[in-house]
Amino acid sequence: MSSNNVSLSKAELVAAIGVTAGATAAGILLFQYLSKGSGVKPKVNLDLQKDDPKVVHAFDIEDLGDKAVYCRCWRSKKFPYCDGAHAKHNEETGDNVGPLIMKRKEA
After folding, report:
1. Dist. CA 82–CA 49, nearest whole Å
2. Where in the cell is it found (predicted)?
3. Sign (positive or negative) of CA dihedral 96, 97, 98, 103
4. Which residue in 36, 53, 45 sits closest to 74, CA to CA?
5. How far from chain centre, in Å, is Cα 63?
């Protein structure tokens, strides 16, 4: 049985570490550069009014009643109103989005 004894001088060890660190940094930079333009940016709105250039909803304050709850996760089946779909979205994605709640001040 033979043993491979490798002894490196201090200068050789420093050079080996430098080459390894440089190669690792170059690999990371190359990966970041190549993956930058390789995909479509994620969209928030997956299926609501996709033919419109911008989704806009306007409401008169007088028509809101005492309380209105609006969706901010874009997953509600009652959009623009919240149906609680953000709970599933948050669980699946680790996000923390919740509804916009508008209510009148209690007198």
Report:
1. 17
2. Endoplasmic reticulum membrane; Mitochondrion outer membrane
3. positive
4. 45
5. 35
Contacts of 2 (CB under 8 A, 6+ apart): none
Fill in the DSSP letter of residue 70: E
Whether the CB-CB separation of 82 and 69 falls below 8 Å is answered with yes
- Strand, coil or helix: what is 83? coil
Whether the per-residue pLDDT at 38 is higher than 80: the answer is no
Catalytic residue selected from 10, 36, 50, 54: 54
Read off the DSSP letter of residue 42.
Answer: P
Tell me if residue 54 is catalytic: yes
Nearest Cα neighbor of 72 from 53, 52, 51, 48 is 48
